[in-house]
Write a structure and sequence with these properties.
Number of domains: 1
CATH architecture: Orthogonal Bundle
Radius of gyration: 18 Å
CATH superfamily: DNAb Helicase, Chain A
Structural class: mainly alpha
Shape: elongated
Length: 151
């Protein structure tokens, strides 16, 4: 049986978060309070976010040109989607004040993906029948309790 369900995601929100930070690096402090690199679905968005955070931590100036330059210097520009993709992140971002809301959307989708992943692991373990029921229940409680703290 083929599973045609779509993984929880909101790629426009991911793009808006990154574009907002590029346009207003002061937003990074708020965004990093809500998001981690792994919360972005796309690897190129994870890479861009990682470099924005490193630039901020190093006290580097952040804007479109310095980000593209840094990614190029580290040999990661292509892996980040190229300069065209990075430039497009700021297109259509009308209101930077909404970036924290977009970050919350990204975080929500990331938590849903983690729940789905952990549920799949528990289902597999249960169907294999090699684990004790109490161990599976304890593992499920621990896992979902930990995920609940992220919300």
């Amino acid at each position: 049986m083929q599973d045609n369900r779509k993984v929880p995601q909101n790629l426009p929100a991911e793009r808006a978060v990154l574009g907002g930070v590029i346009m207003d690096p002061a937003l990074l402090k708020t965004v990093t309070g809500l998001l981690e690199e792994r919360d972005f679905l796309l690897p190129q968005n994870q890479r861009i976010f990682r470099h924005l955070c490193k630039m901020h931590n190093e006290g580097s100036f952040i804007d479109l040109l310095t980000l593209v330059d840094r990614l190029g210097n580290f040999g990661e520009l292509d892996g980040a989607g190229g300069s065209g993709y990075i430039s497009s992140l700021i297109d259509g971002l009308h209101n930077k004040s909404n970036v924290p809301h977009y970050a919350a959307i990204v975080r929500e989708k990331a938590i849903l993906r983690r729940i789905a992943h952990e549920s799949e692991k528990l289902t597999t373990a249960a169907l294999e029948g090699d684990s004790l029921t109490t161990d599976l229940i304890t593992n499920a409680n621990d896992t979902f309790s930990r995920l609940g703290h992220f919300h």
